[in-house]
Amino acid sequence: MALAVLMAAALAGCTEAAPPKDTPSLRIVMRMHPDPQQLRAQLDDRLASCMLQLRAQGQTAQAPALPNPADMAKWVTRETEEIYANGQRAAFSTDTLVWPNPAKACQWTFYKSVHAEAETLCGDWYGGSAKREPNPDAAPEPPSFSEEKTPADAAKRCLADAAKVHSASGLPKGATPAGQSCYWLSDGPVAGGAAEPSVPGQYFCSHPRAYDGSLPRYRRSDGPTLRYLRVAAPGAPRSATPETDADRMEAEVVEEGKPIPASRFSRQAVEAFVRQPLVVPVGGQQ
Fold this sequence. Notes:
Layout: H1 2-17, E1 26-32, H2 36-56, H3 69-74, E2 78-85, E3 88-101, E4 107-120, E5 125-131, E6 144-148, H4 152-162, E7 173-175, E8 181-186, E9 201-206, E10 225-231, E11 248-256, H5 267-274, E12 279-281
Antiparallel strand pairs: 1-2, 1-11, 2-3, 3-4, 4-5, 4-12, 5-6, 7-8, 8-9, 9-10, 10-11
């Protein structure tokens, strides 16, 4: 009887500390599209290198045409989907490089890096990653998976931290192209307000639910982001991989209150995402 009383008291304490259970549910899909002009110069160099490699191996092949700029602008070269519901969170992200494949006569190919994770609020976390490099000499690496658990004696403290509400007071208010409001954060002083910031720096526009208490603060999440914007200093060098290092990333899907299947927060969902094909021909070329 004494043990039952103690267990009931412990559960009651956790219940009192428990934050709202992600009501309503939330799903955000952030996407980055490459700048065709920036990407074209890199593709030219990559194709020339691949053709040289083929000739060095004594192979002859006709160089494939560069992808159409209109098609390039539609590519999704970085995507992150984040979902919240019923005290659970999951995230699925993909980075995609575009490279000629020397094993396929330099045909254009997508090479992916993927990561997925699922966590229960103040409970278990499970994640996995996999990637394929556009390097024919690099041996494929198997997917890697890891797991973390929250010790029972830390759960109550974790729930109390998850319930804390951060104020948006003083943060400039912004908006997505679709009209969804958000709050600008930055790695330096924020300037701009509803208009896009113009001072060099990195900026993140967070969903209002990161501040209104309707979304628990998960240990693995900085809060739902709706926009990423980088303002480069004049003359700053460009990255060699503009597909995944562009200047902006926007939330193209924001859904609230729609049912999210429990299976999407499972270990099986994480593993299925990580084990997807990572080398995919552009445009269905074989």
